[in-house]
Amino acid sequence: MDAITVTSPAETMQLGAKLGKLVQPGDLILLDGDLGAGKTTFTKGLAQSLGIDRNVKSPTFTLVREYHQGRLPLYHMDVYRLEDGGAEDLGLDEYFDGDGVSVVEWSQFISELLPTTYLRIALKRSGDQDDDRTITLQAHGEHYQQLADSLEG
Ligand SMILES: Nc1ncnc2c1ncn2[C@@H]1O[C@H](COP(=O)(O)OP(=O)(O)OP(=O)(O)O)[C@@H](O)[C@H]1O
């Protein structure tokens, strides 16, 4: 498991954008990190490089936002509100099995519903500066290992 250090929101977006060029239909990206860690910022970069020009906002209240105007559909999920359960009835599988890229924030709250292969990206405040983040990649599955290797390279 390797870590990438970034020092600004722009750099976090750049990393998201790099991933956006590499993702394939059906890919699942989990974004972990505390409030304000940069999960949505990362997703904005990913969305931009997919060719989505709409402003990506956190789907905290809607749970899922779909964007269909890019190279691939983007399904942006924020399941923070499912801390106490209730995810079983939402049909999230349809997103995971779909042709788009699923990006899930706070995936620990739906861990029992997740497929077995994915790329987990954890963002953590680090260092002395407010804008410093350490980004750790954890790949499950060969395809996701390739994505992780490309992001780190
Ligand atoms: N290196 C950085 N990467 C990402 N965001 C940063 C960084 N440095 C500062 N920030 C700021 O931190 C905030 C991150 O907000 P963002 O909505 O992306 O976090 P989040 O993890 O999605 O939070 P939430 O769980 O509340 O949705 C933004 O205001 C952003 O400008």
Automatic annotation (TrEMBL):
The keyword Transcription regulation does not apply. Belongs to the TsaE family. Pfam families: TsaE. Coiled coil: none annotated. SUPFAM superfamilies: P-loop containing nucleoside triphosphate hydrolases (SSF52540). Keywords: ATP-binding, Cytoplasm, Magnesium, Metal-binding, Nucleotide-binding, tRNA processing. This is tRNA threonylcarbamoyladenosine biosynthesis protein TsaE. It comes from Lactiplantibacillus dongliensis. It comes from the Bacteria. The keyword Protein biosynthesis does not apply. It is found in: Cytoplasm. InterPro entries: P-loop_NTPase (IPR027417), T6A_TsaE (IPR003442). Its main location: cytoplasm.
